[in-house]
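Sanity check

After download, print the first record. It should look like this:
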Amino acid sequence: MNYLIEETLDPEDWEATRLMAHQMVDDAIEHLAHVRERPVWTPMPDEVRARLQTAMPHDPAPLADVYQDYRENVAAYAMGNIHPRFWGWYMGSSNFTGALGDFLAAVEGSNLGGGNTGASQVEQQVVDWLKEIAGFPQNASGTLTSGGSVANLVAHTVIRNLAAGFDVRKDGIASLEKPLRFYASDQVHSCHQKALEILGLGAHALVEIPSDDRQRMRLDVLEETIANDRSQGRQPACVIGTAGTTNTGAIDDLTALADVCEREGLWFHVDGCIGGVLRLSQEHAQLVDGLERAGSVAIDPHKWLHAPFEAGAVLIKDPEAHFATFEMHGPYLQMQERGMIAGKFLADYGLELSRGFRALKIWMAFKEKGAVKFGRLITKDIALARYMSDRVKAHPQLELIAPVDLNIVCFRHIAEDEEASKALNTEIMLRLQERGLAIPSDTTVQGRHGLRCAFNNHRTQREDIDGFLEDVERLAIEISSEGSV
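Expected structure tokens:
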């Protein structure tokens, strides 16, 4: 047997690779510089889809050919969320410095499970910056995650273990004497139910409290429900406040919820994946008053901080409870006071042992642009939403279907009844998407279906909104003339 095979994944010709890499960067800059000139989204033809369903390659191919394959069959059919007219769901729009950070992080190759490295220190610094934004004390704990779903899962795991009152890690949830209850508005993100299901508490552990006419949790019903659960032998554990609901951007009364939690002895968690960084905006920081009183908060830097996917975070005020929930070391990971493994082991604060260097793209963009600019961009997005709201209110054929309190506008073209309205607005949305004009999503608010535009795109300008509303009206006329809905 030959034990001396010398092979590597490094290029055989570094200079040729350098030229190819420069070409990729040049193309990327051109792509971004002219993003406004392209359709927002392009449907993928069947023949292209077929090219991406071929068997695994066994033989090598030149990097130039691989890159061309990517450009023709992948990049040409991207989601489009970097385009200034992409407002569907709640996507980030990325930034070029962050993309460079992802490249540099990949080249450096650090595993952020732990270690005495610069990468580990950068992540801890980014977490400290997020604490500062949220108004959390410096001795609070925190970790970066893939996104809000995992951030909320990490927080709920800590809360579950504390509320149980015994060693859940050793004995499991079967030892719970009373079923735990977590309370949130009926506008809460679905990831919370998924988290409680994963934790073995079941979907019934999430009690959805009715929301008011501005989609905020009703405090009177919350307190009644807590009292009723206690009388029925259940154990209230946590109230989940939402700082920016995904559907309409509503913000619960966080100060009032904090007061309820103090009176009832419950953990206060805030899902701030949308609005957790609102304190950066001088004009709108008061919208999240009370955030600083939470025991934990989830934040998504890949939303309003425009970091490339993926970048989530969770902050937890009780560092001992956070550490006790996740700390674990096998014989292959014995901690040392010196050497490469010394220092804080980041995997002790979350689910993942192998973790990418997510922090670098946030760190670089913050250092280059400064926190004040990110605050101005938040202010701009809210102003754009209010501008669109005013345009809709002034239009005789359009109507809002939810108040615009933050940066999400839910509206629709008027039709003769609810069924006709849903058919018309759905068809408007699909034609907007298929023709590459814009990407709104659709939603239903208190029984009324309509279109939804979420403004967290730093490239959007007022002219995009003006053109979009003109397209909506033009398509409504076109559809009505066809008699197709």
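If your output differs, re-run the checksum step. Summary of this record's structure: The longest strand covers residues 235-242.
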